[in-house]
Amino acid sequence: MAAPVPPRHDPRSPWRSEGVPGGSPTPNGRRSRGGCLVQIVVFLVIYLGTGLLYNTMHGDGTTSVDYTAFTAQLDAGNVRTVYSRGSEIQGTLKQARKVPGADGADERATYTRFKTYKPAFANSDQLWREIEQKKVSVSASPVAQGPGLGQSLLVSLLPTALLIGVWVFVARKAGGGLGGMSGVLGRKPPKPVEAEQGRTSFADVAGIDEVQDELNDVVDFLKRPDAYRRMGAKMPRGVLLAGPPGTGKTLLARAVAGEAGVPFFSASASEFIEMIVGVGASRVRELFAEARKVAPSIVFIDEIDTIGRARTGSAVGGHDEREQTLNQILTEMDGFSASDGVVVVAATNRAEILDPALTRPGRFDRVVTVSPPDRAGREAILRIHTRSMPLAPDVDLAQVARTTPGMTGAELANLANEAALLAVKRDRARVTGHDLSDALEKVQLGAQRPLVMPQEERRRTAYHESGHALLGMLQPGADPVRKITIVPRGRALGVTLSTPDADKYAYTEEYLRGRIIGALGGMAAERVVFGVITTGAENDLEHVTGIARGMVARWGMSDRVGHLSVLPADSQQPYGMSAAPHTLDLVDDEVRRIVEECYGEACRALEDNRDRLDALAAALLEHETLEEADAYRIAGVASPSELTDLTKE
Question: Into which CATH architecture does domain 8-22+189-369 fall?
């Protein structure tokens, strides 16, 4: 199946439209004010520029000469008339003379009208007597007139006209409309596009079946509005899609419009915000007006928390523009603008910060949580993103889905694309399982980087990663170790990859303590073997601190703190904002206690299994990378697959 055609984006509007019937961009085919005014400004600039260019090229026909050339022609009796004002002298010759400095030029380089300036030391009386002797006619008016009123007006208005033209161009590029009210120049409505083939449908979406069931009601309502109206049902005003980034919220909104066969308008909330107050609200009105023209239709607003966050009483400046835009959205959704037939679908990663007036029934009637897919969903998503790829027989998408817990649809799409890129680089005819495995390592662990380490550094890294892996193998209920490597990847000198066999949605205290012990295994191995620790445990300590703090302050796993939640629900708020100072001191004490206890257990476990730790480190130094089966065999620990087989028997 061909990939769906993305919606076209008219650069003159802040939104994209898809599946809109063709037609005139403005009512009655009239041209918008902004377009007319821009054309007038362009015409004025061209007109003024042409006049100035003509005046520059043709001038007034007068040749500037030096004072010596003028007196020479006066002595020769070749001056017919003169005119003088101040030190300027103009006049005409009886016979044409060559332009000074035109030696070697053709005979046409001559002049009869001249202009010169009398030096301050020249004797005016003597010049006047000589003019009288030569019977030169003294004129009362200039021989060459200066620029007329029209030409002066052209020259003076040209810079202003150019500035106006630049101002208009920049303002329209910045977002249309030059004023806070309705905009002096306005904005061209979006040019409708013809209905497109290959629009997104539910066939292009997988892994979130429960969300599709929620949205099927909207699709059915858009397809059969009369059947619902007969039963007294009303079309939902809005559907809010909430979930982590990359879970497919935008794709779902487009799929709803594609399944229902209705026009689809999409925009990011940030595209409505401008520096000038009122422009965002004007754009919202325009968007809903266009959607109502082709109703039933869907308006999709991405990242709505940009303008929809809870309002406060201290809004000034730019915040006032955001609130006016939000108020306009509330008005449009509340029915005051008769927006029947328009369903608003919005997406956000932070639904908890949205304004209650926006999320109440009657505006967003449904809040649909879009979560990362489970294992079956990941396999279905991988099949969608690899359906146009030639796959080798050794590709097992079910196995790839099993080793990618927590990955979103966008991350799985990136994984499939990375595998295809590797296959092209390796000149393969098909994408193989090895390509997918390497792509997964690149996505999860980072790209390999060529780094030549000293032998002692390699040995220390081998023991560090072996400590992680061995404790992960020995801890009950820990995630299986999939791969160990001391090949530098990303910012790490080595990596131990552990992923669960099945998706986990709730974690026990034992499991979380096991993860802390495993994360501290690298630092514990350095302490046991070398007697010192290095900076290589920085990321491990950050991970450990986050888990321990969650156990104490969010999940009630500390007897001293009790069953309380003392961390803010919003991860964007600073730590401790919702707790008293003495409670925070208690939390820090408990976090330190848990981490120290787990570190002690990690050191004791490695000392008791020193032979296994040495065996793993030696194998890593020899092979650099160990797969799951080899790692468990060398450590002398039964792998999860062997335990599963024993259980079946």
Answer: 3-Layer(aba) Sandwich (3.40)
Distance of alpha carbon 293 from alpha carbon 189, whole angstroms? 12
Distance CA 277, CA 273 (A): 9
**For 113-140, what is each residue's pLDDT tens digit?**
888 888 877 777 778 888 888 788 887 6
Active-site residue, selected from the candidate residues 465, 526, 590, 601: 465
- Max Cα–Cα distance, the chain, nearest Å: 138
Residues 6+ apart with CB under 8 A from 200: 4, 251, 254, 255, 257, 258
Structure pTM?
0.65
Structure tokens at 588: 């820090």
471, 522 contact by CB (below 8 A): no
- Here the tokens at position 602 are 């990690």
At the topology level, CATH places domain 61-138 in 3.30.720
What letter represents residue 109's amino acid? A
Closest CA to 288 of 322, 347, 331, 320: 331
Do 478 and 498 contact (CB within 8 A), yes or no?
yes
Residues 6+ apart with CB under 8 A from 164: 41
The question of whether 465 is a catalytic residue gets the answer yes
CATH class, range 375-445? mainly alpha
CB–CB of 320/277 below 8 Å? yes
CATH 1.20.58.760 matches 455-648: yes
Over residues 145-165, the pLDDT tens digits come to 655 555 555 556 666 667 776
